Fold these 2 entries.
Entry 1:
Amino acid sequence: MRQDGTGQLIDAYGRVVRDLRISITDRCNFRCSYCMPEEGMKWLDRPELLSFEEIERVVKVLIERYNFESVRLTGGEPTVRAQLPLLVEKLAKLKTPSGKDLDLSLTTNGATLRLLASDLKNAGLSRINISLDTLRQDRFIELTKRDQLHNVISGIHAAVEAGLQPVKINTVVMRGVNDDELVEMVRFAREIGVIARFIEFMPLDGDNSWAPSQVVPATEIVQKVTESFPAKQISHGSDPAKRYVFDDQKGEFGVIASVTIPFCDACDRIRLTADGKIRNCLFAVEEQDIKTILRGNGSDDDLAQVFENSAKSKWAGHSIGNVNFIRPKRSMSQIGG
Ligand code: SAM
Ligand code: SF4
């Protein structure tokens, strides 16, 4: 990796890193079985979280020095962080060196979105991904440990009404859990004009019980959906989701095949945890700290150096399914999905 005047952060394999995922909290109001255990989570203390000003400074450095154009806020559940629209407003004001707006997005479980969607849109949020793994109330309660399906559905409608564009619904597909709902989920998404996206179940669950047999491969997902809704694949660039446009032109759906067809070759992401650690991969086993720099009068050069070091050590790809795969110590909610 070099900062060679091209204004790009380039890793050891020549991939340009330009997409930042920021976890703004490790806390959550749900307990999705594939993400965190029902009991016993130890939350970060409030002072350990990066402040909005610290987050803003990091994003500014990445935009100015490395032409980052896209930032996604996630968690834990980002909407449980107080004053979220304020952070969105701060980040939305940052322009790219070419004067473009930042592509600013959010991933949320949608539970309180009915109350927040228009504030987020007004604050400058561009687009939104809402997680929804089932349309059946009993299953929803079993999966999330919360009786909140009605609120998530209202939140999805509120996001559409607020004009967030596009609205995507993320569904983690698990064998024997919700793999019989793929077509229903697509039908629901098409009816309200949002994009359904299916995600292969990854070994980042809270209780470490993931097994390959629980993964429904992307090929099977596509086959099941297109039997009911014929669709053709289109180019997806560096988007990890393979995209399929319906033959009747009523929208599209996507599949993220992180396990069976990893997209590491095209990965342009880097992650910042809520407590100020840089992770160069979802599955990274090492992290680099920037909170000490942010709180210790470190310079922007110091910050940039840590990002460069992190990019330099980014591996070619994860090895889920291989004997040498090491599961990260943190679960998905602690990393920021
Ligand atoms: N709380 C927010 C939400 O649920 O959308 C944002 C954080 S969540 C960790 C981000 C995304 O990661 C969600 O779409 C969730 O479904 C997905 N996710 C969590 N654990 C996963 C796992 N083990 N495998 C695949 N996706 C997972
Ligand atoms: Fe919370 Fe999102 Fe994890 Fe579910 S997937 S427990 S909503 S952080």
Note: The chain is about 30% helix and 20% strand.
Entry 2:
Amino acid sequence: MPVDQIGDVYVAGRWRTSRSNEHTVVTNPTTEEPVARVVSGDAADVDAAVRAAADMAATWARTPVPERCELVRRLADEIEARSDALTRIITTENGTPVAESAHAPAQAAAHLRHCAEVGPAVLAADIRPNPMAPGDTLVQRRPLGVAGLITPWNYPLSLIVVKLGPALVAGCPVVIKPAAETPLAARMLMDAVDAAGFPAGVVNLVTGGGRTGQALVEHDLVRKISFTGSTGVGRSIGEECGRLLRPVVLELGGKSPALVLDDADPAVIAATILKVSMRNTGQTCKACTRLIVPNTRRREIVDLVCDVVASAPVGDPFDPATFFGPLVSERQRDRVLGYQEIGRHEGAKAVLGGGRASGFDRGWFVEPTVFDEVTPDMRIAQEEIFGPVLSVLGYDELDEGVAIANGTPYGLAATVFSRDEERAAAVADRLEAGTIGLNHYGSNAAAPFAGHKASGLGVEFGVEGIEEYLALTSVHRLPRG
Ligand code: NAD
């Protein structure tokens, strides 16, 4: 199959040839065949993109909010018009089963429409009487300026759009730097941007890896960074932004708990555990990969979960019946195999899976794995694996279960299972997590998504996600008349 040679970046409303001589080969994780050779933008590409965005900053900030929102709605339409192609690209470059990737365009569109709907109210200035002196104050919400958006590979479209929608509505032009593994969905997103009719320079894209991202973070004209990715890289970006006094949102890793209470309904666990713990072949930041169960029900729940996981098909991600596809890359496959080895070495018991998936002569497939007899100090209970590996930990008293749930550096998400929703909610109040599901796991474009502890800083989604791109200015006024 011919491999596409892609040597351009999207700057100021057109594809322009990069002079960089570095490339990344995008590989189909199912077939291990190269799909495209995509340029890794260099500092000159980043500079051109940031300057194009900066040139538009004042114009875009002055564009009336309803007009900006209308363009964002059109972008939603253009994404939906490319639904099939986007689904195919996501599954080709990332291996996400189509059962999952087919929803990505509609979800992205819903997110954009929500931003357009709530944007005008978020951006409106308000007047506050002064309780200390005569007069009042006009509190303005102004766009911060050029925003650099840096994203990982696991949800190649959605994770860009959850930054793009709020930034555009807020009035910030952007430079997007997608993951090197998955630049193709991002490139198709630029076609949608073009078709939606955004003024040239408002949305720019530079493909590449860490070095390209770093050039964006450090660029003088960037006024905001929004990063989604690993805690390690997030920490270094946070340090750099601290030095530059540059506002930053960091959406980072997790090791989230699913805490099963002693009255939990096994049918509910059976119906939801795959989505809660192993969505996108476990490559989901908010996956609840530690199943914390009362020891009195441990055997029953481990058997139940193993049955459910074992019955979920592993295979070709283009088959609509497939639940587990390949992992995104050989590196990620090796990382997951490495953690399976670490788990065994630490004394955990692989009650399901534990190695490479059999029956595949190519593709980066691993066996969906359940480890029992995991203790809180083990690495497989503490570190993010980012694959289909579930660690089961037991507890005797509920306080112990809560302590185990909170006992990692992370605080991204959690799920609580109980037949009594009030009881589940009371336990949820004790969990250190930014997103908690009661007997299910979902997301809501209208509700804030924010990692606590080492899972991040700042917020995405909801009106709060738009506020991240705004600076407050107070204009004090004397009494009138
Ligand atoms: P990563 O941190 O390696 O890379 C993320 C992005 O940062 C990529 O675009 C990469 O090219 C870029 N990058 C790498 N080094 C950089 C640097 N020094 N400066 C600027 N940019 C740099 O993460 P990954 O392996 O691509 O993604 C997996 C991670 O993402 C997991 O830890 C997962 O939990 C996390 N994640 C978090 C969320 C969330 O919302 N909290 C969502 C999805 C994924």
Note: The mean pLDDT is 97.
